[in-house]
């Protein structure tokens, strides 16, 4: 990229913590957030495990001091909490002082409210305020209105790569000079709709997810929101801002293979990683850590593993999936893993791939299973979505 795009703020709420600090402490202490379902009344309650945030909607509303007549969906509540944290962490006093945008990613949108009140809409006028929250874009606008942001507001929904594409779009808008600052990230709440959909695909595990393990049984769904603040080099210099890391490069490609499955040789993942390296002007040997997509499904781990081998050949850096900690948070996944990647860079620590026991029989790839302290300069983070949408972002110290 011709201009540096700095990360100056971060915010997150997930199954392992309600702030950046809480998430980091959970990662280094090995505290995983995947549990039995508590907040949703579903027939699958005792069958699957999820990465659930143990706060009710009312508690989330109280955190934001919202009026009782608000119409925020759970997805919007999570987004607003994380975005508010990110803005505060970046030290932003006047959000409209510069040309500022908000790009948020979601796949669930307000589905949690739709399924809750669907049969009451015709009879109970008080719950009709949630009809508009069904729209994925409503989540983003709710967050923007709360923050008082008057600039560009848009929503991206490319399944599990959504937040990575939000980061890419924000970086492009800054790099092209169209915006000075962009708040980017993703959010998704758990819902019966999501649980039933993934159950139909037969890719949910009835136990804890085990990325890159030969005996992996599938993913654990999770809910979360995370946002990072991207700012131009001009703002950083003008305000002498603290830079957490830089977006050094990124790539997006499509397998064009199947509606939900990735190609066996990981073509989309291979192209995304290759493009990201080229944009960052880095060689594969320069990458110190790969935050893998690592969903613990049969298809993803095989496809991603083969793509990693194609890119890095015999010099594969340490890699791990952090989804055993949080579950797979869908459109929020790339955003929370962006936060984790930046935390890894800041602290020179690689987080472990928990639950791994048996290497996959298809290749000789071993994820890192213990916390590792190591000097880090460049972290590559993968996020792959349904429809073959594959995205890679590289984060660097400078």
Structure explained in plain terms:
With 398 residues, this protein is an alpha/beta fold. Helix content is 33%, strand content 19%. It has a ten-stranded mixed beta sheet with strand order 5-4-6-7-1-8-14-13-9-10, sandwiched between helices. Strands 2-3 form a two-stranded antiparallel ribbon. Strands 11-12 form a two-stranded antiparallel ribbon. The longest helix is centred in the first third of the chain and has 16 residues, at 74-89. The mean pLDDT is 94.
Question: Keywords, please?
Answer:
alpha/beta; 12 helices; 398 residues; ten-stranded mixed sheet; globular; single chain
Question: Nutshell version of this structure?
Answer:
The protein has 398 residues and is α/β, with parallel strands linked by helices. 33% of the residues lie in helices and 19% in strands.
Q: What secondary-structure arrangement, pairings included, does this model have?
A:
Layout: E1 5-13, H1 20-29, E2 34-36, E3 49-51, H2 57-64, H3 74-89, E4 100-105, H4 111-117, H5 136-147, E5 153-156, H6 162-175, E6 181-188, H7 192-200, E7 224-232, H8 233-239, E8 245-254, H9 267-280, E9 289-291, H10 298-312, E10 318-320, H11 323-326, H12 333-347, E11 349-350, E12 372-373, E13 378-384, E14 389-396
Parallel strand pairs: 4-5, 4-6, 9-10, 9-13
Antiparallel strand pairs: 1-7, 1-8, 2-3, 6-7, 8-14, 11-12, 13-14
Helix pairs in contact: 2-3, 3-5, 6-12, 9-10
